[in-house]
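[audit] Reproducing an earlier prediction to check determinism. Same input, same settings, fresh worker. If the tokens differ from the archived copy the diff job will pick it up downstream; this log only records the rerun itself.
[audit] input (183 residues):
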Amino acid sequence: MSATTGIGTLTVRPLDPLKDAELLHSWVTHPKAAYWMMQDAQLQDVEREYMRIAAHEHHDAYIGLHEGRPAFLMEKYDPRYVELVGLYDPEPGDVGMHFLVAPTDRPIHGFTRAVITAVMDELFADPRTRRVVVEPDVSNKAVHALNEAVGFVPEREIDKPEKRALLSLCTRDQYLAARGVAI
């Protein structure tokens, strides 16, 4: 993926669990990443978690780059096998997604919106993707608003082992309509 936006070029590369662990550790333990639920993680915990993801057949992680510098984390997963097993009825072409914008001392207005747009573009670049599924914490109002801005529609609250989540879905058409693209 490479997306040139009003804030610069965003690209993604596969995450390397060992080489990227220190960087990820600084991101996921930052107070801004409270909803990532790794606040107390040690470096080895982060390495283990992303080694587990790298080894999983139905879960992938990527480092997102802004102008070539690491700036966000993206995960995609098959909800039939990861995260949402037994919690909703998946349809063919469903893809689950998580993203985390890195903490920064110099925020760029519109950056998070550009990131979620680039992530959605990447997911829908695969013609097999019909719908993106997310399950953020019900209390994460900021991400709910961001999700809605790119076309997600809340389905219902669900109980996951680690949180009460708002299951939300976004079809390709809903995403394109939110972007103002003629369907």
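[audit] rerun output stored. Observation attached for the diff report: The chain has a mean pLDDT of 92.
[audit] end
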